[in-house]
Amino acid sequence: MAMQTVLNRKLLVITGKGGVGKTTIAAAVGMAAAATGRRTIVVEVGQESRLPSLFGVTAPQQGVETRLQEGLSSISIDPDRALLEWLQALGGRVSGRVLASSGTFQYFAAAAPGAKELIAMVKIWQLTRGGGRGTRSGGYELVVLDAPATGHALGMLNSPQTFGAIARVGPIAGYTRQIQQLLETPSHTAYVAVALATEMAVTEVLELQAGLQRQLGRDLEAVVVNALLPRRFTARELARIESLGDVPSAPQTAQQAAIRSAIQAARAVHDRARFQHNQLARLRRRSFDVVPVPFLWGEELGLAAVAGIAKRLEQRL
Fold this sequence. Notes:
- The chain has helices at 22-35, 51-54, 79-90, 96-101, 104-111, 115-128, 150-157, 159-164, 171-184, 199-216, 235-243, 254-284, 303-316; strands at 11-16, 40-45, 66-69, 72-77, 142-146, 189-196, 222-228, 290-294.
- It is of the alpha/beta class.
């Protein structure tokens, strides 16, 4: 029997420290999965919907599935809006605007910990089962969740337990049990961290791993280390480069000044790359499956660059 890959699940949760490129990696993972023939949707959490613009598609309304390319779609789910829509459904003819301004929404959100996160998770769970209310297509083989940053992501993943302690009967209680089962089952859900090769980002990966074990009894399947600089020189090569600067300090020609500037730049790049690779070693010592993604030079990361990352991830995940 072949080993199950990370992409061969119902749900793939991607999280990590803020600002490490989670959305870029989520888009690349979605492209990689679609390239293998798996019908995939990437779920963004929050008010923004960034993926359609990356793919040159008109931004849709909140909560509407959008086709990005063959076999790949996206949707944006705002937990506050999801909870408001759910309360509106319970309230019958009460409009969302009236409900939001009445204070009921804020009161319920404060009185029921994890409620809005749970309703968002219900929508994600429905996508793994072939769509839900308000979806146009459904039938996805993989749902890639571009989760919030680590702390909020753990809170979202813990919402079935948090809210389940309050709602023990009824349809919501049924949802909590089914979502919890989805999140805890290794053959159904995988967890991937995204990090930069910095001390803080790697520390947050370790905290994420501890949180997953504590809440769900699960481990990270892989850690994608983004924007990794190559190690261009060995220590011996750097010493030879630095020896080129052994010239009298004065008078100094323009050529000698340029050489010294180049030597300083080489030293800075070498030191930064060495530090980054030390952080990689820190992850590997903890037995994580580390997937390095090289730093891409350019003013902005376009679709072609994301497609290149997707090919690398397809081979490693």
